[in-house]
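Predict the assembly for these two chains.
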Amino acid sequence: MKIFITNKNFKIPKTNKYLNENKIKAIKNFSYTILSFCILLVIWKILSLIVNSEIIFPSPEKTFIAFINFLKLKIFYVSILSTIYRGLIGFLISFILGISFGFLAGFNNVFYKIFEPILVTIRSTPVITIILIALIWFKAENVPIFSSFLISFPIICANVIEGIKNIDIKIIQMAKIYKISKKRVFFEIYIPHILPFIVSASSTAFGIGWKVVVAAEVLSQPRIAIGTNLQNAKIYLKINEVFAWTLTAIFLAYLFEKIIRVIEKRIIYWKR
Amino acid sequence: MLRINNLKKIYKEKVNIENTIFYDFNLDIEENKISCIFGVSGIGKTTLLNILSGLISYESGNINDFKNKTFSFIFQEPRLLNWKTVYGNIILPLKDKYNKDNYESIANYYINLVNLTEYKNFYPEQLSGGMQQRVSIARAFAYPSDILIMDEPFKSLDYKLKHSLIKSFIKIWSIDKRTVIFVTHDIEEAAYISNNIILLSENRPTKVKKILRLPFSIKERIHLNKSANIIKQIENLLISSL
């Protein structure tokens, strides 16, 4: 049996040495990320020196001072939370509807043929049009929710459809020969197969979603929101605050990307 | 005997072009023996397997002996679910047939027969190609089938692995003698795994050219002293019949 154990495809058992190597690799990667941020900061500083006007292009220090000041304000945290709330609600609706419609279209070809052009239309509509129409239809609070829903829905839907369509026909044939019940084929073959597609769709949807939510907030001006604060800072020409709020929005997107990566590792356990 | 009578199968390639694979095709398959169907690529071996197992339709003919039979398959590829462990993959088809205690012991028995007990809780992507194929062999035997179909299961494997798998297969089959239909175009594989070798014609529509009934037991072929001689004899017999 030795031949199998020494085969190159076989994973080395996780010994201490292996763990250490992983740790070193992680530290290395992390230091590259830090370096990348440092380069960004230097470029930012140089540009602000060249422009030499805090109103047109604030320096990193002024931006960070504004950011530190935010941390003392209650409105800062409340704004973040309410923006997160809108983003999550929009995402959740598109998640549920996207998966449901995705399954329908994935399994029913007639439905797919009717549904696909609609999906393409929604996906091709300019984001700003969606926001402008939402402004007419909804209250200020709900404009960002609707906009992020309409942006995320086609992404999730398309991924679920793709997942279903790209299932290995050979696996389905195997299930047929072994007479595995339809219900079990659905839950034990289709669902686990589609999960990675849903995770990657969620990551894309969140990535675009936050931008859309903030853009919609800028235009719809809900009482408490990152977008509202962004717009106010612009009106009062506090450009360093515009930058600081933008920084906040970037952190938010980064945080959710990380959360999805953690969830991915748990859901797609067989790839560990 | 499982009879195939007057089988007719046509593939419609385009509107007016028809490709007759089988016309008046007759074959008897001996039960509890290994029938090796030997023929060149593209002659319709896989088509025949798919017709017998009910995966595809056929124009006419009588294959009633194969209806209401249960099949297990060892495919060219392992066809395992990546999100299930070795054990999970093997119990997948058993769950609808047995209660928990039963399928657990059946699965463990066959996992042990293919020497994968240590790897029971591994996922397919953590295993080598040969180990994956052994999982597929265990799954096929663990399933209570009447007929076991093998469609070139050693095709993409290297020499050493192929031999090791052939040995595993013969070991299990000697314990659990099922009706096996084994399709291949490899002379050596045919020499190892066969009670009867059914030679197919080289032209369409496909016919049975000759049936070689081998006087050697299967188990002798992995016997250390005798095997080389027997395999050589069968190979020569097969080559002279081509």
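Confidence is low (pLDDT under 50) at residues 1-10 of chain A. The radius of gyration of chain A is 24 Å.
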